[in-house]
Amino acid sequence: MKVLIVNNMAPFVWGGAEELAHHLARNLEISGHEADILRIPFQWNPATGIPAQMAMVRAFDVRAADRVIVLKFPAYLVDHPEKTYWLLHQYRQAYDLFDAGQTNISLDEEGRHIRSAIHRADDESFREARAIFTNSDVTRDRLQKYNGFKAQSLPPPLNDPELFTGGDVGNYVFAGGRVNLLKRQHLLIEAMRFSAHGVRLVVAGPPDSPEDAERLQDLVGRYGLEDRVSLDLRFLPRRTYADYLNGSAAVAYLPFDEDSLGYVSMEGATAGKALLTTDDSGGVLGLVASGQTGFVVKADPRELAHAMNSLQLDKELARRLGLGAKDLWRTMNITWPATIRSLLA
Amino acid sequence: MKIAICSSFVPFVHGGYRNIVEWLAKALRGAGHQVEIVYLPQSEEADQLFTHMAAYRLVDLDAADVVVCFRPQAHLVRHRRKVVWFIHHIRQYYDLWDTEYRGLPDTPKYRGIRSALQELDTQALREAHTIFSNSAVMAQRLMTFNSLASEVLFPPVDEPGRFRHGPTGDEIVCICRMEHHKRQHLLVEGLAHTTTDVRLRLMGRSGSSAFVDNLRELALRLGVDKRVLIDDRWISEEEKIDLLAGCLASAYVPFDEDSYGYPTLEAAHASKPTLTTIDSGGVTEFVRDGIEGLVCAPEAEKIGAAMDKLFLDKKTSLSMGRAAHDRIAELKISWAHVIERLLA
Amino acid sequence: MKFVIFTPGLRASAIGRMTALVARELVDTGHQVIIVRSEEAPLLERLPHDFGTISTDWTRREIVEEYLQDADGVVYQIGDNYPFHHGCLEWMDAYPGIVCLHDFYLGHLFYGWSQGRHDEARGILLDLYGDGGDTKFFNASAKSSFIEETVADMPLVEWVSRKALGVVTHSAGSIQKILTSCAGPVVVTPLAYDASTIAGRHEVGAPRVDLIEVLTVGHINPNKRVQSVIEAIGSSKILRDRVLYRLVGPVEPHIFFELSAAARRYGVRLRILGEVDDIALAHAFNSADVVCCLRWPSLEAASASAIEAMLHAKAVIVTKTGFYRDIPTSAVIHVDPENEVIELRDALERLTAEPAIATSMGAVAREWAKHTFTASSYAESLLEIATLVSRTGPLHQAIQAFERHLRGWGSSESMYALEGSLAALAWRGE
């Protein structure tokens, strides 16, 4: 089957969605299909330009494909009779972020028209879809709430699960992934002030900005945690990253209100590591059941310290929770072959 | 610099038309630029043509410092610094209109479309900061149909350093798609007129198995099947490099090609001469008769005689190969030159 | 060229008569024409004009579709009469084409079309005329002052012009709204009229000196200014004594009574003949000395009755507005609508006093009309705009496709952004 993946493009920006489209194409080909990717440039500022770009998307002829899989607004408006959504993003500034007052759409008459155009085009397009999948429960619930469409949540699988073989319970808590304020690695460092003496923390990953790196370095210096906290703030080769994770006692991942299960937590579960998160981490909670696959605590340094103590000082507990995480992950059956089957069903 | 390369594509078709885009991207990245490739769908159908053109007008590539545009309708994109490297028109409304290849009815409706298309193309091209064409033939067409001057900027091949020169063999190779307009049949017919032991090898993928069958049948009928090897498959780059290194010469005899064609250039990088015909279009911009190879009439006897000549006078063939190699520098066919001109 | 022309076919339609003339001219000069009758189903039973070519009607979907696929030019004849032009509106969106616009006011057409599709109609009114436009229009539509209340601000010509790939109209007076609504070319060309069927007055004998006959022809609406003519005659003893005023054309009972009462009050000899056949109409023109062809407000792109009166070599009095303004002053007498009754009275008195003026003016009018309102120049204009549209149309349709999406999403305000983006593609014919 000829499957065209249709995604947005923010020129010169390569992020998670681009990565996902790339791996989807690769895995479609592994499953014996022909795959290609169409990336349609989208410029959302100023918001007055959005409707015209929506119409632009509708104008492109993609009939060469037997199926299209669409990911983001407005690329997902593309006109095709056999269209399946794997919805990553609606235009949130016209939905929940609008309600939260975080929007680039004006509140006047013109803004009202723009929002209504987005809502109507979305509804029209969701209605004509073959099937709607979302990347997370959060995206699914948002779609249900704002547009009244039911969808099935289909989290993106790991692209290199073979790297996460696991290993013995190590002697540090590992916090991987992008480093920024929303991912809250700083909370973990603050927690280290209150943790038991033998507890160690490794933070490794690319900081979004120099300030994000400095923030962590300052905290470590201020609290004199140099001997127990190690920072490896850079873009890591996958192998290095996997080594860190496989050798840890537990994986900590505390993003604020994340949409998805989170690659970091999925990789942790694949490796059979206990997971540590906070009760406001959104989608990540789908993988972390406190006392079964890890710990869910308040976003508070003392509570986090307590959990880190337990995970590192009681290796048997860490192992048991890690196995629990691995089992839960396995039952979820989030793999590329299963995902492709669902998307093309 | 942030450079967006914009071209059109046909999803699932990965032919040579994507090469120039990918290679330029690679060369630009190598020169330290940030590159984004923007491929958008193409449509030449009458009822979609202008909708697509309008859609291209709405593409916002403001984030780029420079946009380099290739295939139609990419040149419709709006940008403060739009550089067009023009490789062809939508030909049935241009140079093919007055030929049997038009494929459209000559009615008021299509005449209207043709004139609207030419007018819009001209308008969009006029917006460009600079216009380059990939051959003198294209530059001429831009002048004829759009009254626009352009600078000829010959497209190099990817990593030309990969090609090497080896001892002169007995075989003339033709490595390109096997299609009717590439006229491999002329070469088979020419071979039947040779009097020497010169051999021919035709290699490349084909969209038409009938054409390949016809070639085989022709070879058999003309009694040259033992001296010609017809291999219709995808040829890896390594294999191509080896074949070119050890051949006698390369043959490339398409009908009225827009540019000199990659086969010509690849042979030159391997210091091998090219055999071509006077009606091959852009190829003769590179190959001059008796200098970088042989240029003869598209007739079997003439081609046969040229093949014999290449075979009998290997010394001259060798020096023509060297001349072909020198011609690359003479025509400034290099990525460094391309980048310098595109960003000038 | 292959034309498909949508037009009312029934003989009661003057537009149909003109189209038949133009169609025959096109066929005679080597073009192909297919006529698609546009009137509502019951009217399709009526006898049609002789178009001299193949014809079908708008309800025969498959056949019409087949003709359209093959056409080089699609033409819609549009006037302010929904039952007559119904079929044009049914096809125009799917197959946009050239609109021949016969009226500068399409309130009745729009109102007829809006029945049963209220929401869509409201959307269009809001889009064209802003907030409250819908309410204003529909409130006015229930009143006898419908035209007066809507003609200036909401004539609805924008509605049809926006769908059109090009517009042909018949006078330059009110084309500003068309120019701003139609993205394609707009041309003005005189209405075609068949002069050969009309014999000028000089062939029927000398003017009478006793009783002067004044004639008004058409659907007797307030905008035909019959009341003013009665007042003008009534205000002059000479005119009261010597003028017989005749009205030919359909008239509603209440207007009949109003006019009759006014005539009695002013002491004016008035004969209301009602609707008559073509022969009786020709006879009425023949026996008239002066034809009053007044309009206020003026709604038509051109007036068939004024042209006919001129071809009959009559002295014609017209309102100084719209189409009539373009007629040379040597051929007709213009009256200012602001000073209507007085100027009318003066004109009628002059013509009564010096019949020779009427005769010479009629001769000038006939010559001018004969050479102006020809089928051949109309056909040439159609060919010219069709050629232009074959160039501008494809792009125009592409832009319309974008606009349709945006309207479908209800984002009319954001159109500005789109217009900006597509500005470089906008093209207007010369």
Keywords:
heterotrimer; B: 344 residues; alpha/beta; six-stranded parallel β-sheet; 39% helix; 16% strand; globular; C: alpha/beta; seven-stranded parallel β-sheet; 48% helix
The CATH homologous superfamily of the largest domain in chain A: Glycogen Phosphorylase B
| Uncertain ranges of chain C | none
Measured as a percent range, the helix fraction of chain A is 40-55%
Strand content bin of chain C:
5-15%
**What is the general shape of chain C?**
globular
Summary, kept brief:
The complex is a heterotrimer of chains A (345), B (344) and C (430). By secondary structure, chain A is an alpha/beta fold.
Which helices and strands, and how do they pair?
The complex is a heterotrimer of chains A (345), B (344) and C (430).
Chain A: E1 2-9, H1 16-30, E2 34-41, H2 50-59, E3 67-72, E4 83-89, H3 96-99, H4 109-127, E5 131-134, H5 137-147, E6 152-153, E7 173-176, H6 185-192, E8 201-204, H7 210-223, E9 229-232, H8 238-246, E10 250-252, H9 263-270, E11 274-278, E12 294-297, H10 301-313, H11 315-332, H12 336-344
Parallel strand pairs in A: 1-2, 1-3, 3-4, 4-5, 5-6, 7-8, 7-10, 8-9, 10-11, 11-12
Chain B: E1 2-9, H1 19-30, E2 34-41, H2 46-57, E3 66-69, E4 82-86, H3 108-126, E5 130-133, H4 136-146, E6 151-152, E7 171-175, H5 184-191, E8 199-203, H6 209-221, E9 228-231, H7 237-246, E10 249-251, H8 262-269, E11 274-277, H9 283-286, E12 293-296, H10 300-312, H11 314-330, H12 335-342
Parallel strand pairs in B: 1-2, 1-3, 3-4, 4-5, 5-6, 7-8, 7-10, 8-9, 10-11, 11-12
Helix pairs in contact in B: 5-6, 5-10, 8-11
Chain C: E1 2-7, H1 14-28, E2 32-37, E3 55-57, H2 61-69, E4 73-78, H3 82-92, E5 98-101, H4 107-114, H5 118-129, H6 133-141, H7 146-150, H8 157-163, E6 166-169, H9 176-181, E7 186-188, E8 212-217, H10 226-234, H11 237-242, E9 243-248, H12 253-266, E10 269-274, H13 278-287, E11 290-293, H14 304-311, E12 315-319, H15 322-325, E13 333-335, H16 340-353, H17 355-372, H18 375-408, H19 415-422
Parallel strand pairs in C: 1-2, 1-4, 2-3, 4-5, 5-6, 6-7, 8-9, 8-11, 9-10, 11-12, 12-13
